[in-house]
Automatic annotation (TrEMBL):
Residues 214-345 form the Knr4/Smi1-like domain. Signal peptide: none annotated. It comes from Flavobacterium rhizophilum. Gene3D superfamilies: SMI1/KNR4-like. SUPFAM superfamilies: SMI1/KNR4-like. It comes from the Bacteria. This is SMI1/KNR4 family protein.
Amino acid sequence: MKNSGITTSYFLEYNNNLKKTQWNDITFFPIESYALSGKELLDSDTKPGTSEILEFRDNLIQVFSMQVEQKVERLFLIAPKEISGIYYGFLFLQNKQILPIKIVGSPLFYKWMEIVLRDDYEDRDMQSLLQFASNEYSIISIGGSIKMNNRIFNETGKYLFDNAPKKYNEAKLAKEKANYMTKYYQPESHVDTTAIKTAFDQMMKQFNPAFAPPADNEEVYEEFEKTAGFAFPKALQELLKLHDGIEDIPFLTAENILEEWINWKTIYDGWTLGELKKSPDRKKKVLGLYVTPYWVPFFDLEDGNFMAMDFAPDKNGTPGQIIAFGADYEKGEWIADNLAAFLDTFKIDYDDDNEDYDY
């Protein structure tokens, strides 16, 4: 650490030895809380809402990051039974070290704690553990006479090890997911180009929409393969030989497919395998996952939901089957065996001036 005020003796290294560390083995570094924003609260009866509390969370992390001269990835803060008591905590730092801290309290810090913990302190004799990160805000009960959730005191090192930021284990978590998905990935097999064109022509004849002529998508296909590690689906290439966007029918263009695939791959990368796993599909056609990198979205269902081609089916599924997934789905849902079958069943139900899509 380049900051001169903190000696190496304070830091806990994130490794297997950390699991053996007990609370009494730890030396807590005194850290200041005087630079917090929100001084107007000291003379105000206004109760900040959720957005203001989240701003305080981010401000607290920023204040501590500045003092240790390194980004704080996650903060554990142990609140005492009394608002104005001693606060202990742990800073999970960007370099995968953990700094135990003891807060040098200030009137503003205690005011914020009163606001944050107001619902947590009613009618009980118990401490609380606040867990803060840029996308995290939680408070759980610890200690107290009934010893609930007391691991942070009884198994301190192991608790810190088990609850470290995901970034501390990126390589391990990525390998775990890759090993799991490798068992299911199946490359695209034979593509019936005639069936796709026939189904598409029938659909276009039925609805007669305006559409953009096909575009040269070779650069997009190359970029997809470079990024995804497998080829842009041939079935979708065949479909995109027939159009580059259809009026009022939300098929994605090649560029949109790549963009949405990247968006969902980002979500996949940020979740652990345990977080991705959902209840299994009873028919064993679609993996019980929220998303995988082998789902290639090609049709926009709106509000963050999509139809996709699936190249990591469960044991009773087929590579290239069509599934629905997205923000409103707990997990992927089977729709059709292949792209041609999906196009065959596609229809529009007309309701006066409104068009609703069925598939």
